[in-house]
Amino acid sequence: MTSQEVAFDRQTIEALQPIHPPPTTFFSKYIWSLDHKVIGKQYLWAGLIFLLLGGTLAMMIRWQWGFPGQPVPVLGPTLLRSSGGVIGPALYMQLFTMHGLIMIFFAITPILIGAFGNFCIPLLIGARDMAFPWLNALSFWVFFLSQLLVIGAFFGDLGAAGAGWTTYPPLATNIGTPGSGQTLMVAAVFVTGVASIMGGINYVTTVIRLRAPGMTYMRMPLTVWGQFLTAILNVLFIPVLGSAALLLLMDRVFGTQFFIAGAAAVKGGGDPILFQHLFWIFGHPEVYILILPAWGIVADLLAFFSRKPANWYKGTVLAMSAVTILSAVVYGHHMFQTGMNPLLGQGFTTLTLIISVPAQVLFLNWLRTIYKGSIRLTVPMLFTLGMVFVFGLGGLTGLYLGAAAPDIYLHDTMFVVGHFHFTMAAASFLASLAGIYFWFPKMFGRMTNPTLGKIHFWVSSVGITLVFSGQLLVGYAGQNRRLWNPFEYELFRPLQPLNRWTSYAAFILFFAQLVFVWNFFHSMARGKKAGPNPWEVGTLEWSIPSPPPVHNYDAIPVVLRGPHELSDPALEARLGRDWVGQAEVVPTEATGTVPLVQRGVT
Amino acid sequence: MEVSHTMSASLPLLLSWISNPFVAVGLPRDASESGWQIDEMIRSTTIAVSILFILMVLWMLWSVVRHGPEHKALYDHGADFKSWRWTALVAALIFVVVDGDLLYRSTRFMFGTFFDFARAEATPGAVRIQINAHQWAWDARYAGPDGSFNTPDDIVVLNDLVVPQGVPVIFQITATDVIHGFNVPNMRMKVDAIPGTVTRMWFQPRETGVFEIICAQHCGANHYKMRGTVTVLPRADFDRWAQITSINSARAFDGKDLEAHWGWNWAAHARLQ
């Protein structure tokens, strides 16, 4: 592999990314910062705050399932005074709607894509910043605007949005959910989509144009691959969501009838199913948008902490790319029950099941990476292994739902809820935490407390497994989702104990996050100082100080090898350690001098 | 299914949740002729994925326990053909066995049962029902003695459907306001009720009894109590019920109430695949 696969040679890329004087004012440092690392942290804060908000809503939903119609402790007397602390059916539908939308678009997306994408991509490919720093700052502030719209939705005249996160019309039009809360949420999704597209364009351009000399595509850390593929999906499919949201807004605000159909009570010439097509053409890629960055982080971390190269790197890249492509052609499995043409349904079933081939290649590569390694059970590694565990459960339960026949029974049950929470919530959450614990030293220059980290890991991963397993089990028994009181149905009445136990697990999971909050803030201020490379790994970001200077690299590095060259016996003999930097120049054994090509001279 | 799952007293409930929260976990009773096919593919998939998951966990445990920090890591990229062919082979093998089995069974069910409206329609004595879902109830309409819909002798019921045992019951379903989900778990059947569209499904009750209709699609605040029932009666009992109810419905018929005549021409939507 030669550096010709990279866009620019060293002189050009240095000239393209001159070192600017660091910002001096508070405003340019922390508010309108053009530094990708600061923007990454802005996204991290914004995401974590909304994660707390979405989690609080989840606790209220769990309370309702565990103790239907009983006053909510703590939150009831303060927030729900008008209803005597009880969650009524109308509030309940707002809770699950806002929970879903907030978690997907305003918590996981900013953390996994906004924070890690921004922080990691330039550092890991050896660039000084994003390709478009100004657009990057704009992307964050547009995202922030969308978060303000979400907050505004809570104060809507008839309460917050209530049509479900999928926002199916006609329920999502004024027929089912009048009031400004629903309108503001649809607007918020549109605006956050604008921010995602800006970010996506920036990520794709940065990866294509600003890789350091020698950083070929096949030498990129898998974290970058995950972000790159996610950004491509974002740029391609968020516009579809945007169009659906815009048409829905027009139905709500201007009285158009794109999604309102002509049955007796509701006259109109539109088609509610059209919305579902638009929504899921985006919606299925979206679940991969949320998991590809997590896959990338996990694939890297498994290699780092097994002290081994990632098994069949190229296979993992191919598998992730194949999933990216296939994700665009399977969305119909969300619509099996809409009276879909049998042949179309058969096509979607087949394509959906085919996705399991690349997914298994990916999984087997992870499992073979840890095999015969020298596993260091650090906190990031524990969270990574936890992610593999829950993603295994999530991926395998997807099998039932991908085929049209079992989906007849399981569609719209808690089984679906458990499945997508294992993949999108549990796996994304644990991978995010793995990433936070891993890059925390690089972000803040200090180490987190490993003991607290391990407590956090065990309670979180056991808790999250119990919560979503409980959902799978009641769904298997038929319990439908989105029911204010599932036990109105005699069929589900015997499931009340299991629902209640699941709620207890959820409460423990929620409160265990306090350990993380404490660890995070305490370590930021008082944590042990981290050196440049506390984890002893070779990717580029660990060759510069923690935290890095504003311009990242004094000289753009010249990359010589892949991201996980760990435990190479030849290098180990010469260096006396099991890791080697991606751009580290190792004197040759014969002459003790550095070949010209390695110095980046040719 | 026994309807008397009802635990009205709180003490038994309390005891049951302390003793065993898993008491009710499992597929609900299958009361249909064809539901066993779905149960079978769900169960076989459960066995397959359980094996895969246990193998995965054992593999991870083995690696973590045996290949700890004191173990010397093997420098291996797993990238030469001799190595990656195993990854590819195992992935392909799992796909063929597990996904292949599911795909085969699913296809057989979808084309052999679910979409076989031709067989259902051709069966003598099959019962046809039109459903009009709305917030938050199920309007149902049977053709009545004259065999055609939207006529004065139509049997019209709300929420509580009655069907005969042992013959296909065919539904044509729509909704007036928002999307609902017509869902009868004990018959293993479910299809959306969508404004502006007529969707279809059918099942053949194997057992008599009362089975719940549960709305599957979020349809507003009272979605949770959009409950109906399907009562399966022996054929003779059903015929007697139909006769009486048709007379009652005809007596209540109001020719000027056009909103009440929401039925449609059955044949227009009974296209046979």
Structure commentary:
The complex is a heterodimer of chains A (602) and B (273). Chain A is built from 19 helices and no strands. Chain A is mainly α and 602 residues long. In chain B, the strands form three sheets. Chain B has a five-stranded mixed sheet with strand order 3-2-1-5-8. In chain B, strands 4-10-9 form a three-stranded mixed sheet, covered by helices on one side. In chain B, strands 6-7 form a two-stranded antiparallel sheet. Classes of the chains: A mainly alpha (602), B alpha+beta (273). At the A-B interface, helix 5, helix 9, helix 10, helix 11 and helix 12 of A face helix 1, helix 2, helix 3 and strand 7 of B.
Number of domains of chain A: 1
Global Rg of chain B: 25 Å
| Number of helices, where a helix is a run of at least 4 consecutive DSSP H or I residues of chain A | 19
Mean pLDDT of chain B: 89
CATH topology of the largest domain in chain B: Immunoglobulin-like
Q: In CATH, what is the homologous superfamily of the largest domain in chain B?
A: Cupredoxins -  blue copper proteins
Q: Which blocks of ≥5 consecutive residues of chain A have pLDDT under 50?
A: 595-602
Give me the oligomer status: heterodimer
How confident is the prediction overall: mean pLDDT of chain A?
Answer: 92
Number of strands of chain A: 0
Order of strands across the main sheet of chain B = 3-2-1-5-8
> What count of structural domains of chain B?
2
CATH class of chain A: Mainly Alpha
Question: Might you state the CATH topology name of chain A?
Answer: Cytochrome C Oxidase, Chain A
| Total DSSP helices of chain B | 6
Give a brief description.
With 602 residues, chain A is mainly alpha-helical.
Please render the helix and strand layout as text.
The complex is a heterodimer of chains A (602) and B (273).
Chain A: H1 10-16, H2 26-31, H3 36-66, H4 75-79, H5 89-125, H6 133-154, H7 180-209, H8 222-253, H9 272-306, H10 313-326, H11 342-354, H12 356-370, H13 379-402, H14 404-410, H15 414-444, H16 450-476, H17 496-526, H18 569-575, H19 596-599
Helix pairs in contact in A: 3-5, 3-6, 3-17, 5-7, 5-8, 5-9, 5-15, 6-7, 7-8, 8-9, 8-10, 9-10, 9-12, 9-13, 9-15, 10-12, 12-13, 13-15, 13-16, 15-16, 16-17
Chain B: H1 10-19, H2 35-66, H3 81-114, H4 117-122, E1 127-134, E2 137-142, E3 155-158, E4 160-164, E5 169-175, E6 180-184, E7 189-193, E8 199-203, E9 209-214, E10 227-233, H5 235-251, H6 266-269
Parallel strand pairs in B: 1-5, 4-10
Antiparallel strand pairs in B: 1-2, 2-3, 5-8, 6-7, 9-10
Helix pairs in contact in B: 2-3
